[in-house]
Amino acid sequence: MHNQKKGNRKPLLLINTLFVLFLAGLLLVLFNAPEETTSHLPHDPNHEQFHAIASKKEAEKNCGACHDPDGQAPLPENHPPKFRCLFCHKRK
Ligand code: HEC
Ligand code: HEC
């Protein structure tokens, strides 16, 4: 009985070691991640008012006025899915 218990320890040690190595690798990837490149919400007369609206969801209701396809500044054709503008174009 006693011996059997001891025998089961080794796989557990192996799994723990692999888990620690996995976490170390994950941390390495996170620390080496490239800097965020998506443009921030600009600070200019067009956009200043939206920095002041606390709720992202409320602020985003106004973006289409200029950034819709027929607005003054339509989004580029290859723009990613555009729901929730401010999740990607952060305010700073
Ligand atoms: C009154 C019109 C107007 C509204 C409303 C507006 N924008 Fe813009 N936006 C512009 C114009 C014009 C440009 C291009 C010139 C510039 O950078 O100001 C622009 C540029 C941008 C850019 C690119 C900045 C860069 O660095 O290239 C982002 C991101 C952006 N807008 C996000 C938003 C978001 C998010 C909203 C809603 C919260 C919004 N805009 C509302 C007119 C507007
Ligand atoms: C899933 C993330 C995401 C969302 C959501 C999003 N965008 Fe973008 N947007 C990008 C990326 C990535 C680019 C490519 C250029 C870059 O790196 O900023 C871009 C480009 C733009 C540009 C062209 C100027 C520039 O910075 O290259 C404008 C203007 C813009 N987005 C406005 C908006 C508006 C307005 C909304 C909401 C209706 C929105 N975006 C939602 C990721 C996003």
From TrEMBL:
Species, as recorded: Desulforhopalus singaporensis
Keyword Transmembrane: yes
Keywords annotated in UniProt: Membrane, Transmembrane, Transmembrane helix
Name by which UniProt lists this protein: Uncharacterized protein
UniProt KW Transmembrane keyword: yes
Transmembrane segments: 12-31
